[in-house]
Known about the structure:
The chain is mainly alpha-helical. The chain folds into 5 domains: 10-131, no CATH class; 193-255 and 265-310, Arc Repressor Mutant, subunit A (Orthogonal Bundle), CATH 1.10.10; 338-442, Winged helix-like DNA-binding domain superfamily/Winged helix DNA-binding domain (Arc Repressor Mutant, subunit A); 459-544; 555-636. Helix content is 60%, strand content 4%. It has 31 helices and 8 strands. Strands 1-5-4 form a 3-stranded antiparallel β-sheet. β2 (256-257) and β3 form a beta hairpin. α17 (338-350) crosses α20.
Amino acid sequence: MRMVFGPDDEKEFFDVRDELAERFAAWAEVRAPGADPWFAQLALDYKWGYGDGELGRWTRADLRDLLCGWFPRKVTLDEGDFGRVVPSVRAFVDYLAEVGLLDPRGDRPERLRAVLDGLGPEFRAAMGDPSRFGMAKSFATAMMAGGVDMSDEAAVSRFMAEFNALPFEARKLLTDPPEEPPLEFPPVRLSPEAELAAAAAAAPAVERLRRFMAWLGPGRKLTQTGRLTLADGKDLLGVLGTDDGVLGTDDVVDPRTGDQTFRTRSSEDLPEVGVTFAWAKTARLARVVRGRVVPNKKGQALLDRPLELWERALEGLGKLGPTVLDRGSFVSFLADGFGELVPALLGAIYASDEPVPLDELADAVWEDVRRMFLIDQEPADQVRFWRQMTASDVDLAIRQLEQLGAVERIDPAAPTDGQEAASTAGLRLTPLGTWATNRILRADGADAPVVGELVDADAATLLERCAGYDEASCQAEIAAWCAARGPAAAAEQLAAFARTTDDVESRVLALTALDAAGPAGVEAVQGLRAEPGLGPLATMWLLDHGLAGPDDLDPEMILAVMVETTALVLATDGPEAAAEALAGLGTPAEQAKLVSNLWRVDSPRTAGLLAALAEAHPDKAVAKAARKAAFKLRSSGR
C-alpha cells in the first residue's frame, strides 16, 4: 500500500486514507474494540496536511504535536470524548506495527506507546484550553455555546453575518491569538541623524505637505460637505503636480477616454488633492474650524524640522485608510485597520535580510483578512475577487510608504539555474524606514537592538546580547564597546569575565572579543593561559593568531581543547551536531581512541559531553568508547 503522499496528491491520499481506516476498523473490532477509526483518519489528515506526508513514519514528537497541538487547534469534541482519543491513536500505532506499515525510520513501536501512555492528562488539558483553539474551532465552539445548530446552514450564516458586522476592534478582540512573548528582531545599524533629516526633507510626501501648507496660507473655505472647493482643488493640483510624474494636470482634470470626456465635478474626484488634504489633517498640520481649513500653529512649527515632520506624516498615514483605499462602492477589508497595517508591513520588511516580494506581503495580509472576517464560506469567485482587491490595497499602502521615503522597490532578480523568476518587485526599507520601524517596534515592546547601544553595558551583558547577533553586527558592537572605554580597560574587563564564567560559549566569545582590543587583547589572552579551563582555549587563540606554535599544545591540552570546543557545539546545536563535529577528526577507530581518553580532562563539561556522545554517536564503537570513558570518569571521583 502506498504510504507517502505529496501536497498535490489529494485524491490519491484520500483514497488510501479511507481504505486504511476501513482496514483498521475491521482489525479494531477484534483487537481493540474501544478504538474509534475516525481518530485514526484525523491522525492521517494531520500527517498529510501538516506533517511530512509519510503516513507510516511516526516519531514521539509527531504524536505530541498531533495530540497537544493539532487536535486542540483543529478538532471540536464533546468533553466526554476526550478520553477516547489517545487510546484510539495508540491502537492505530499497534495496527500499523502489526501489519508492517509502521516505517522503521520513525521511532520504535515501544517508544511510541510509551509517549502515548503519558500524554493523556496533557491532551485533556490542551483540549480544554481556549488559547490553543484555531480560528475555525474557536468559531465552532462559540456557535455551539450560543446554541447554534451546526447542521443548520441558515443559522450558521446568520452567526457569520452578525460577526462580520461587528466593529473592527470587537472582531480583533475575538480573533487575536493569545498574547505571546515579545518579538525578536535582528540588530540594525542606524544612519546619523543629519542623514535621516536630509532624507526626510527629500521625501515626496513631505514635500507635498510643505507645498500644501504654503498654498493654504491663512486658510481656505470648504464646501458644506467638508471638502475643498473644485476651484481650490484644481489650483492645489497645479501646486502639487501629479503623483506619478507622467500625467499632467490637464490629464487629471476632466480626463478623456477616447471621444468621451469625464467631467471633474468635485475636488473629491482629484485623488492626489484628496489624499494630501486628508494627510495634512491627520498629521495635525491643518485643522477644520467653522467651515474653513486653517493651519495648526503647532504643526506649522514642524515645517523647519524635517525629521519631526516626517514622523508626524508617518503617524498620520495610519489614519488615511478610508481615503487611500477609497474604491467607491467597494469597501476595503483593510480600511478600518490601516493604522495597524502600515507598521505591520514595515515590520515584515524589517525582519527580512532580503528584499520581500510584494506578493508575499499581500498573501500574508490576506491570511489576516481570512482570520478577521468569516469569508471562506462565500462563493469562490467572490473570495477570489476580494483577494485580488486586498492585494491591490496592499500595493496602494506600499506606494504611500514609497512616497514617504520609507520603502523602496527592487526589480525582480533575473532567475538563476533551477529557479523561477520572482513575479513581483522586492521591497526593502530605506535607512529612514529602518530608523522609523525600529522606533515603532521598540515602542511596542519588541526586542529590536541597535548596533552601538551596548557601549555602556558590562562585559557580561555585551557578550550575552552579541551571542545572538550576526557576525558583522557582533564585531561592530564589540568594536564600539572597546572604543568607548579604551583598549586596556576593555581587555581587562573581557579577561575578568572569561575567568568568572563557566559557560563555554561565553568564554569563546570573550576571547574572540579580545581581538578588538589590539595588543592589549593579546597580552590579556597570554595571561589567561595559566587559568584552569581557559588555558587550552587561550592557547588555541594564540595559535590562530600566529603567536604560538604546535609545540605549545601537549597531548593533554589537545584533549582539553577537544572537550571545550565539542561541548560548545553540544550546547548550541545538540548531541547530533556534537557527534558530527567529532566525525571530522578521523575514522571511527581514531575517534574511539580519542574519546576513550576524554575522561582524563578535568572540566565540568566532560561528563555531559561523554553522555551525549554515548547516546547520539551513530558508530557503535565510538558510542561504546564514550560509555566506557564516562564510567572511568565516575570511578575517578572527579
